[in-house]
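Researcher: We're teaching a course module on how sequence relates to structure. For the next exercise, students receive a sequence and then see the predicted structure as tokens, so they can try to spot secondary structure elements on their own. Here is the exercise chain.
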Amino acid sequence: MNKLTEAAVEVLRDVGYDALTVRSVAKRAGVAPATAYTYFSSKGHVVAELFWRRLAEEIVEPDPTLPRAERVAVVLRSVSLAVEDDNQLARAVTASLLGSDPDVEHLRVRIGVLIRQRLSSALVADTGAPADESLLEALEMLYSGALVRAGMGYETYSAIADRLVAAANLLLENR
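Model: And here is the predicted structure for the students to work with:
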């Protein structure tokens, strides 16, 4: 599967999301289309997998020695900046994750769970008490809205990261 995902990044950068196909990824990877379709049912599925892998690498466990606001900021910035360096992937991720492909659904859930776990770890009070669920949900709403805004091209991912952290700080100040 690594060979296919590496090829998918190359194809995406060369031709963009609209022209990406599972067959073109298979060709670039040097495998039969049937092999590629064993792993990916659609181009949206390929892109969602790329994003999942990128997030799994980029979003680290928050450092418990940092103050809570800084822990949250680190998580939110890493989510926001995960695709900043790759415009083609950033555009493709937005289209893929907002689509209705059932094979993308399980990755959307995995992505959401990963981010929720990291945010929850960042919010855990120094006393070890569990994260406040309403605050956690508010932060999830913030980052998802921010990523859609960046994905639609209204702002850069870097600018969104700064605004997202500022909005999170407002929430945290009131809790």
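Model: If you want an answer key for the exercise: The CA atoms of residues 17 and 92 lie 5 Å apart. The longest helix spans residues 102-123.
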